[in-house]
Design brief:
The two termini are 59 Å apart. The chain has helices at residues 6-17, 23-30, 35-48, 64-77, 81-87, 93-106, 108-111, 123-135, 138-164, 166-186. It contains 10 helices and no strands.
Amino acid sequence: MAKYSEEFKLKIVMEYLRGKLGYYLLAQKYGIPAESQVRRWVRAYKEFGEDGLRRKHSKQVYSVKFKLDVLNFMKHTGASYQDTAIIFKMNNPSLITHWYRTFLEKGIEGLQDKVKGRPSMSKNHKAKLPKQEKELSREERLERENELLRLENAYLKKLKAFQENPNASLEKHKQRWHSNSKKKDSN
């Protein structure tokens, strides 16, 4: 959906209020896909003034109870999304549309706020690691330490060999590659 500047919206609303063109002709003139968009801008302007045309930069958080009240009102009165938004002092009827669809798909659980972003690291996570260490027997800890020392030793040997002759490992890989490709060719 295209986002329009406040100035652009205000220009169109003022042109409509002057009475020269209707919703449909204004939408055509300015390349707006649907006349209903112009109608929403005019209605929002009439109800809220220039604030009705502004996009809110901070996200308004609504409670589940409020969302249900809005949807119940709409259901019982048969009001449109736009009418409902105006009654509840909201300038974004598409938000109510989203709530309605979510409610139909997921029920009340879908209307609850979801935690966004990466979960914070809890202090419990750090506390659990030493416990696991203590649960190992003395023999198991020694075996684990032995394994870590073997790995470190092997790594240091390879590093030393690579530092002494960096091309040796490349030659070794080239020889393997050539021998493997010859086997494939002979098949």
